[in-house]
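Now for our target.
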Amino acid sequence: MIRIVIAEDQQMLRGALTALLKFEADIEVVAEVSDGQAAWEVIQSEQPDVCLLDIEMPFMNGLELAEKIRTDALLQSCKVVIVTTFARPGFLQKAIDVKVDGYLLKDEPIDYLIESIRKVIKGERVISMDLAATLFMKEENPLSLRETEVLRLAKSGLTTSEICNELFLTKGTVRNYLSSAIQKLESETRQQAINTAVQKGWI
């Protein structure tokens, strides 16, 4: 029996996936949750065979969650499949970097998802056919590590002063990183830079 945890913030889709997978004799959905933190807790307690993770979820996104699973010694046998609407090269590259077992688009047929679950259990890696070409369209991230950190913290709602405290930097230094990031991303404001970095999968 393949034990699965589904983490998806859209209730209708999560319910539909659960209902459809329950028709399979060799698949059991042991939990379905709506946010990343709840998913992490249930994954630790249930230790499923496969985790189906959305990317955009409250508290912790699917890629962050995949990275935590990959670095937990007790979860090394757990297979991670990202199921998302995002076909962005940046997200796909991040997923590959954290060694997910599958990266599927939500508009794939349910039969393809079920087949992919069985494939990853056998040790195969599965990527939606439509995504294969995006690997060759990878756009280089122009942001430095510090610029990325500063933008990520700004995205989470922190003020300049709070970012200073978080990274142990002066206000002037933080402003310089923000200004540099805005310039590199050809944006006019901090929010535009954040939106661009998110869209390209860089933060």
